[in-house]
Structure formats: structure tokens, C-alpha cells
Amino acid sequence: GSILVLHGPNLNLLGIREPGHYGRQTLAEIDEMLQRQAAAWQLSLSSFQSNAEHALIERIHAARENTDCIIINPAAFTHTSVALRDALAGVAIPFIEVHLSNVHAREPFRRQSYFSDLALGVISGFGAHSYVLALDAARHWLQARSP
Ligand code: DQA
């Protein structure tokens, strides 16, 4: 199985950015942890972060040929981006929506997501471990699809 992890805007600042909400781990540390876990589960994994909507959209289009499942933290685009939603719908790659913080326990505008109704599922509130939970969910989903 081949997994693509996408990180949206401002997640390059993890480690220093609002640690009360997002923890102290850097994005590099999170990607490294995911890489190790994926190897242990014999999954191939690549990750990509961008602050730009168009770059994330292009990366989703490029994933069309060779990606079984996408794990995406759309960050602030969660609440704003019809374009990113349409890109995921367009390539029809199953995806899991991830958030470090519990978006339901914060400002009301964070409860609205342009992704949740299209996602296989949503994991929110477990810090960096949210990504590991999503990887495990992707693994189970891929196994169930083609055992
Ligand atoms: C986030 C939650 C979003 O509301 C916020 O804009 C982010 C990060 C999270 O991982 O908790 O940038 O997606």
C-alpha cells in the first residue's frame, strides 16, 4: 500500500506554533515517526507540506496514478477550501482527515469542515498521535479492501 501524507498551511511551524493547541513536536519529527511506523507496517509513505493551496492541489493531482490512500491535515484550509475538497473528489483517492487539536472544542468556525463528509473518517484531538491513528486506520482500510 502507498500512502501520501499532506500537511496544510502553518504546519511547518509545529514545535513553536501555539504549543498549547499543537504540541511541541516539529513537523520533521512527526514525518520521521510516520516513516518509521509505515516501514514497520510495510507501507510506503511520502509526506508533503505547503502553505499554498495550489501546491497542495497539484500534489493531489500528481497522486492520481500511485496512491492508495491520503492522510490530510488541511489545517486552516479545512474551513475554507472548496478547491482542495474538489481536488480530492476529482482524483477519487480515499482519504482520512486529521487534526492535532480537537476542532470541536475550539472556536465555532473550526467545526465546519469542507472535507469530513467525503473522508473515510476524521481523527481530531490527539496531537501528533492523531497522524499515527490515521495511519493505522489507513492500514486497516487497505487490508479490508484487498486482504
Ligand atoms: C488544525 C486545526 C485547524 O483549525 C487549524 O487552522 C490548523 C491546524 C489541527 O491540526 O488541529 O492550522 O488542522
UniProtKB/TrEMBL annotation:
A Pfam family reported for this protein in Swiss-Prot or TrEMBL: DHquinase_II
Binding site for substrate: N73, H79, D86, L100, S101, R110
Site (Transition state stabilizer): R17
Regions crossing the membrane: none
Sorted UniProt keywords: Amino-acid biosynthesis, Aromatic amino acid biosynthesis, Lyase
EC number(s) stated in the UniProt entry for this protein: 4.2.1.10
Broad enzyme group: lyase
Catalytic residues as annotated in Swiss-Prot or TrEMBL: Y22 (proton acceptor), H99 (proton donor)
Reaction catalyzed: 3-dehydroquinate = 3-dehydroshikimate + H2O
Domain of life assignment: Bacteria
Family: Belongs to the type-II 3-dehydroquinase family.
Function (record text): Catalyzes a trans-dehydration via an enolate intermediate.
Listed NCBIfam families: aroQ (TIGR01088), PRK05395.1-1 (NF003804), PRK05395.1-2 (NF003805), PRK05395.1-3 (NF003806), PRK05395.1-4 (NF003807)
PANTHER family assigned to the protein according to its UniProt record, in alphabetical order: CATABOLIC 3-DEHYDROQUINASE (PTHR21272)
Record's protein name: 3-dehydroquinate dehydratase
